[in-house]
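Lab notebook, bench 4. The sequencing result for the construct came back, and we need a structural model before the next group meeting so we can plan mutations. Quick request posted to the team channel:

Model the 3D structure of this chain.
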Amino acid sequence: MQFRWIGVTVLAFALSVQPLSAQDMAAPRQPPQPASGPGGSEATSHTVLRVKIGDGGEGGWLFLPGDPTPKSAPVVIFCHGWSAMQPRAYQAWIDHLVKRGNIVLWPNYQANLRTPTRMFLPNALAAVKSGLEILGTNPDGIHADLGRMAVAGHSAGGMVAAGIAAEAAAAGLPKMQAVMPVEPGDSRRGGIASVPLADMAQMPADTLLLVLVGEQDTSVGTFDAERILHETTAVPDSRKALLMLHSDDHGVPALVANHFTPTAIVLPNGSYNTQPLRQTAVTRMQDVGIVDALDYNGTWRLLDGLLDAAFANPKHAGFLFDPKLEDMGRWSDGVAITPLTRVK
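Done. Here's the predicted structure in token form:
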């Protein structure tokens, strides 16, 4: 990667919100979060309980839905980006998933910044096993439905997520019904800095696979996303897709589809971080931790829809090719936000 994640994330907390000019205030605004449906604010639970799995690279956390507590819930494994070993950089997305009735299992996979990249996947698999053992005790009265499991991940975590899905059977884990690597990378760096990609040919044929990249992601680009798509040879083309999020500056705040798009911070008062921060003028580093239409109409909506499709009986593979999937909503003046495009 071309950045130090923790340093940038902490910086975002420290900087003040840039005030809007009169011209900006008159500009078209982003759409609000939908009230219901994939990516929407409708919740089946209203609190998030955190349970520690363990420390170090084989540790992590469980996030459980409560108030009310469901009797049974699917499990979504969420794999963080390189060095983002604390969930805070993704907490808004995690909370969204949990309040929709999912258990989120967070494998740390890094003990510290010196953890070799070759250990990322083995550590994650060990953490997932530990997390599932805890879930087997029905913590807080919730039964984990292991027939409804999925895995998603960002950046290095996108590589780990794909690896978990490919090696689940060999590792003695339940099958991942859905897989969503977001801006996965980077296997091209070479040497000990390279994040290896597991043998994608092992990913089961009935997996629903959605790979997502960002138009202005200059940190990892599309190289590994395309690798995942092409090397999952057992998964037919009818069950996988590679989509791209686009930037759009028609309104204010502008939408920036860079490598930090999936980060989503919850502020100390419990609200989402929705205002741009003056951390940098460099486009690839803008909008760290912002929750905006690229989240609730983009990453959140896509993963929610993918889970719904994968957990349906039978699976709804057609979800990946529904033209409505590309719709990102509209600015307040009615102009369409630049839609998703299909890379492959």
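Confidence is low (pLDDT under 50) at residues 1-17.
Will bring this to the meeting.
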